[in-house]
User: Which sequence fits this backbone?
């Protein structure tokens, strides 16, 4: 019988992205942009540095939420029970 590997856990996926810029969506109207510094399992959470609090806004003409404002916050700990979505922000490539 072939050995089936289990899919990576949420913690493993987050740990792969330590040091990268991420966007954490807490609600449909706000979230945080920052650098992922650490992942903890007890309690389940993430530490972010260089954090900006963002306000998201969607309209009928543009239903995908866009960042409408941002405010510098500092460092932050977020409990994963309150997080709705985590996105890894990729740096744009320089065209040569």
Assistant:
């Amino acid at each position: 019988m072939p050995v089936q590997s289990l899919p990576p856990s949420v913690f493993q996926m987050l740990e792969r992205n330590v040091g990268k810029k991420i966007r954490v969506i807490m609600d449909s109207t706000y979230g945080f942009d920052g650098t992922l510094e650490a992942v903890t399992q007890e309690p389940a959470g993430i530490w972010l540095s260089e954090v900006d609090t963002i306000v998201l806004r969607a309209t009928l003409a543009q239903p995908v939420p866009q960042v409408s404002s941002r405010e510098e916050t500092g460092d932050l700990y977020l409990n994963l029970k309150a997080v709705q979505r985590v996105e890894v922000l990729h740096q744009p490539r320089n065209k040569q």
